[in-house]
Amino acid sequence: MKKIQMVDLQSQYQKIKAEVDASIMNVIESAAFINGPEVKQFQEDLEKYLGVKHVIPCGNGTDALQIALMALGLEPGDEVITADFTFAATVEVIDLLKLKSVLVDVNLDTFTVDTEKLKAAITPKTKAIIPVHLFGQCANMDEVMAIAKEHNLYVVEDTAQAIGAEYKGKKAGTIGNIGCTSFFPSKNLGCYGDGGAIFTNNDELAHRLRGIVNHGMYKRYYHDEIGVNSRLDSVQAAVLRHKLPHLDGYNAARLAAATYYSDAFADIDELVTPVISSDSTHVFHQYTLRVLNGKRDALQAFLTEKEIPAMIYYPVPLRKQKAYDSGDYVDADFPNTDTLVTEVMSLPMHTELDEEQLVYITSAVKEFFGK
Predict the structure, then answer these.
(1) Cα separation of 70 and 190, whole Å?
(2) What is the pLDDT along the chain (371 residues), one digit of tens a residue?
(3) Are 40 and 87 in contact (CB under 8 A)?
(4) For this UniProt entry, which residues form the secretion signal (predicted)?
(5) Rounded Cα gap, residues 21 and 25, in angstroms
(6) Are 47 and 246 in contact (CB under 8 A)?
(7) How far is CA 320 from CA 55, 103, 275, 277, in A?
(8) What region, left, alpha or beta, does residue 237 occupy, with left being phi > 0 and alpha being psi -120 to 50 degrees?
(9) Contact, 176 vs 157, CB < 8 A?
């Protein structure tokens, strides 16, 4: 049995090596390293795949979130609501822009934002919501959009972990005012370095976004607004362009592995397997389950001894991180987040898991629980 990895990018690459290598060499030979033809082609391909009017490629997923907020014309002190249980990039960009991050609890089953808590957090200073489509499935976008409409708020979807997922037939990232994603190598659609993209159906926002990613320029050397330097380079676009046609197949392979896991663990009362919302497909960027009765860390240690990697996403709520601890929050408002950080554990999840590996992993988990 080959070594089990959280993400097996090497084996995935071997299956598309010839086409990827040829595309990379074409970029090198053309020397069109920045904004070359591969970037434009990938942009158009992704627009078609997502069914969205505008895709603006950029340097990484964190930049995508920052640039999205910059395009909305928010003022220092304006409040942006997002989930307490997610990766730090989501809140990092809010505070970096001198906006005020407002964190709320998540649902215990889907790990996505609790819309009742979201409603309760709205103040006259609230200007935007960032729902995070965590671990591979969409937040409750009907509720999010209804709340946004009622209070005249922007919605920026964090789709870094859910590209290809669908909410009631619409692709994740295409429902709010702006969608953002990451092409970090381990993502469902990952490049071989850093990369990201921003999506919108709004022509005016698309124009602003295109200027902001390129130093605030719409005409060379004429800077109409403060921007940043955040571009997807042509080599990464070449990789992504050839991986995009495989994305639905990759997501199907992840779902198959997740189904195998969940079926194998069905009779273990101390495990809560991932819940798939009836409104959203799940593309399983992570297979994250809950380990009850305080056994999570012991199970992780047991799997480590068996050379099975298992990760904890995320061990500390954002509101308790040193960088973001404002002292404004009351723990009683975050019962689900505070439960999840003690229970969640993610098993290996990628496109190359084979049956031998899945049998080994699930057998080890069963052994731990005496099954």
Answers:
(1) 25
(2) 999 999 999 999 999 999 999 999 999 999 999 999 999 999 999 999 999 999 999 999 999 999 999 999 999 999 999 999 999 999 999 999 999 999 999 999 999 999 999 999 999 999 999 999 999 999 999 999 999 999 999 999 999 999 999 999 999 999 999 999 999 999 999 999 999 999 999 999 999 999 999 999 999 999 999 999 999 999 999 999 999 999 999 999 999 999 999 999 999 999 999 999 999 999 999 999 999 999 999 999 999 999 999 999 999 999 999 999 999 999 999 999 999 999 999 999 999 999 999 999 999 999 999 98
(3) no
(4) none
(5) 6
(6) no
(7) 35, 11, 26, 28
(8) alpha
(9) yes
- Measure the CA–CA gap between 2 and 260, rounded to whole angstroms: 19
Amino acid of residue 205: L
In whole angstroms, what is the distance from residue 114 CA to residue 110 CA? Answer: 10
Please, are residues 314 and 289 in contact by the beta-carbon 8 Å criterion? no
Burial class of residue 275 (count of CB atoms within 10 Å of its CB; 0-12, 13-18, 19+): middle
| 183-211 core/surface letters (b: 16 or more CB in 10 A; e: else) | bbbebbbbbbebbbbbbbbeeebbebbbb
Decide if 101 contacts 77 (C-beta within 8 A). no
Q: Decide: pTM greater than 0.90.
A: yes
Which residues are CB-contacts of 91 (< 8 A; sequence separation ≥ 6)? Answer: 82, 101, 103, 318, 324
Could you tell me the two tokens for 154? 């922007």
